[in-house]
DNA sequence: TAAATATATTCCTTGACAGGAATATTCTCC
DNA sequence: GGAGAATATTCCTGTCAAGGAATATATTTA
């Protein structure tokens, strides 16, 4: 899954809004369509694009599907964006470095 | 400048590559066209889109234009992405919280 | 001033994609 | 099993964006 897939999935206004909605809580297709004031088929189609991009997943609940965000693409975007941080964070003083290293260690320990 | 503008600017493969290139160093239009193996007019057009999205700026140097990245849209994306961090960083232990608060204080002091 | 270089712009064509409408599929409940 | 609800899919149409080719604009150099 490459970046342009994720980015073009997010570039469509309705899909971006869907993602914003799902950030707060998982939702069914109908609920999403209601919130965005779009018709159900469009909601389904947008969700399909998001799903193919790996950005959402769903659980089947009777004849409804409950969609929620997946973390991986956001992690990927974050990783990509990290590479650009030194464009605007040119200044690293000692305390900053110390805290960042310490933070990394803590995160690493939490993975186990 | 809203997010979808930035995202659709980045969603095009050639433009994403241009951004990746400019991350390393500023470049002229011709150099960009060479690197991406595209024709000069397409490079100009893509740069125009990136410029309208506020992602690049240029300095005029004789009859050449030297393009470089602007930091603002990346800051904006980073800010947007921050809102999604708790999707995958669900676990906050005490040490984590302590360090994050401390980090915020440090950043705030650096702004002055 | 003429030629050459670097870049931007315009026009045209083609392909992708979003929305509308209708329909198919799947499940629940009576 | 039939009706209704929730969701997915298909077909159609219009719009928009990217690439190609040609041209315009600006700047340097001879």
From TrEMBL, chains A, B:
This is DNA-binding transcriptional ArsR family regulator. GO terms for molecular function: DNA binding. Residues 1-91 form the HTH arsR-type domain. NCBIfam families: HTH_metalloreg. InterPro entries: ArsR-like_HTH (IPR011991), HTH_ArsR_DNA-bd_dom (IPR001845), HTH_MetalResp_TranReg (IPR051081), WH-like_DNA-bd_sf (IPR036388), WH_DNA-bd_sf (IPR036390). It comes from Ammoniphilus resinae. Keywords: DNA-binding, Transcription, Transcription regulation. Gene3D superfamilies: Winged helix-like DNA-binding domain superfamily/Winged helix DNA-binding domain. CDD domains: HTH_ARSR (cd00090).
């Amino acid at each position: 899954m490459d970046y342009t897939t994720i980015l073009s999935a997010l570039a469509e206004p309705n899909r971006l809004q869907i993602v914003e909605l799902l950030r707060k809580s998982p939702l069914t297709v109908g609920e999403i369509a209601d919130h965005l004031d779009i018709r159900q088929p469009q909601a389904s189609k947008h969700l399909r694009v998001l799903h193919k991009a790996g950005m959402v997943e769903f659980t089947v609940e009777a004849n409804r599907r409950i969609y929620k965000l997946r973390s991986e693409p956001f992690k990927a975007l974050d990783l990509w964006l990290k590479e650009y941080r030194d464009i605007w964070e040119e200044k690293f003083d000692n305390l900053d470095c110390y805290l960042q290293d310490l933070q990394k260690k803590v995160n690493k320990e939490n993975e186990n």
